[in-house]
Amino acid sequence: MAALVLPASLLVLLLLVAPMLLLFRISLNEFSPTQMMVEATSAANYLRAVQDPYYRQVLLTTLAVATGSTLLALGLGFPTAYWLARMQGRWKSLATITVLFPLLVGNVVRAAGWLALLGNGGAINATLLGLGLIAAPLPLLYNTGAVVAGIVAVVLPYMVLTLSAVIEGIPRQTEEAAANLGARPMTVFRRVVLPQALPGVAAGSVLVFVLCMNTYASAVLLGGPQFKMMAPAVYDQFVRGNNWPFGAALAFILLGITLVLTVAGSAALGRRYRC
Amino acid sequence: MALPSPSRLVFGGLVATAFTLMLAPVVTVMVISVFRQEIVSFPPSGFTLRWYLNAWDRQEFARGFISSLQVASLATLIGVPLGTAAALALVRSGMRGGAAISTLLLGPLAVPGVVAGTALYMFYLRAEFWLDRDITSTLQGLVAAHVLLTIPWTVRLVTASLQGMDRAAEEAAANLGARPFTVFRRVTLPAMRPGIIAACLFSFIQSFENLELSLLLVGPGRTTLPVAMLNYLEFRVDPTLAAVATVQILLVAVLLLVTDRFVSIARTV
């Protein structure tokens, strides 16, 4: 029976663990313009990634965008999750599928939608022009705002589904009791709902932050050529720069941040809530 | 009737904003795909379905679509049985190190797509050198990578359906004289069915729409649909591209509806 885990485990070892080890080894090598890669054991690539002003800026932009997007997703996702969790019957499964559906439609498809909405000839500008509210198209695309909108749209379903699973477990009577004792809606939310939903808030935020850090399509398509985040920067090193060792180091910095957060998030949850 | 309180208004506004953000891009793409004029502008001068034919005439989209269908089907056919077997063993055998193995199997979800993609690309180049044959930009190379995507979803979903099952049913069948394989086929397998069906759905869709893992593994002869769309979108968005995107949206919708007839999706996720 236990042997049944072997095929899948061997596959993951061969196609994920071994390649990651190889990539780590490559990150310690040195780049040479003539030979591409020289065997070495140095941390030079990692040092360059945090010291070079350009790449430090890329990392900071990525962290800032991820933080902002996560907070927005939390602010919008919490009420939506609450609304979903407190729904009943047929409407509930319809609403759940409406949240799930965009998640299943690929990131590229949704980025195409944002391009069609925010572009110079896009839906928003065309409507405003048509109504005579503006004289020239607003520059809605190729800026941080467009990227954040695109990312929030991508990660919202994850936030909503994670939170609503936790909120469903909160007994409704606790809210009713607080209200009966005279608490106003805001107080009920702050003192009763939020404390009980904290495990979901933590789990959802960690999941969403990691997804934001690794954004590719939204950053490339909605941010334009000047806007750089980590995942596209990694890709560029392999395709345009051909500097594999440095690209590998960037990849491991991205992976490191992702893993530390995931582990820290689940450890904090496990210790406080045992769920 | 009393006016809604300010906090209710804010609450409703936030929920409405969330749904608008999630749905607006999907709806916009579908609407634009039937506009008559080629440069996207509003209001439309008329409606047409010819962009769908136009999209099929463009080789990169037609080939990308077929290629993505092939990769996603094969990856699902290989990955779901492997993941199901692993989930069964993890839940039932009570083996030591089960937690570590389950972390390993969920690993492909924890590693960012671009990172796993570059690692696989380097690995494939090394393997090509040793084996003296092409792996990058081949069907096999892409399918192998995408099987990696299907395993964590399958393990997660099938494990959940097994954990919800009452083992007494299996014991009862055995007591009534069913042989182990019959117990598996008539009792355990039906209990796993919702998990397996949901795993097929998620695996297929995850693979079909995957961009990051595939970026470096596609080549001139073999591109997947999302990569073809990304390359096109870096230059323009037009009704042809919107038509391609709409086909993808409709495919997901049909898969969701068909799957929902067999298992309640709202309850599986």
TrEMBL record, chain B:
The keyword Transmembrane applies. It is found in: Cell inner membrane; Cell membrane. Its main location: membrane. The chain crosses the membrane at residues 9-35, 71-91, 103-125, 137-158, 195-219, 239-258. It is a multi-pass membrane protein. Gene3D superfamilies: MetI-like (1.10.3720.10). Coiled coil: none annotated. Residues 65-259 form the ABC transmembrane type-1 domain. Belongs to the binding-protein-dependent transport system permease family. This is ABC transporter permease. It comes from Teichococcus vastitatis.
